[in-house]
Amino acid sequence: MKISGRNFIPGKIVEIKEGATTAHVRVAIAGGTILTASITNEAVEELGLKLGESVHALIKASDVMIAVGD
Fold first, then answer.
1. How far is CA 29 from the centre of its chain?
2. In what order do the strands lie in the sheet with 34-40?
3. Strand 54-58 and strand 34-40: pairing?
4. Residue 37 forms beta bridges with which residues?
């Protein structure tokens, strides 16, 4: 597989919560940080995602915003 994204982070699936149409897939990465991806239930099925599976999280956002204050 070739991909243009550079934010390619290895981890393991620790939780999959499927909703009506969207699933939240929680991935544990280095240092114990958890990333959560919102993907379609169809994508979970097509990818065959399972708890404990090694995966890579690919961050596709071009900007990161930071806010401070109340």
1. 10
2. 34-40, 22-28, 8-18, 54-58
3. unpaired
4. 25
Please state the pTM of the whole predicted model.
Answer: 0.81
- The fold for domain 11-58 equals OB fold (Dihydrolipoamide Acetyltransferase, E2P) (2.40.50)
Q: How confident is the model at residue 70 (pLDDT cuts 50, 70, 90)?
A: confident
CB 55 within 8 A of CB 49: yes
Residues 29-65: pLDDT tens digits? Answer: 999 999 999 999 999 999 999 999 999 998 877 777 8
Residue with tokens 């999959």: 16
- State which H helix or E strand residue 40 sits in: strand 34-40
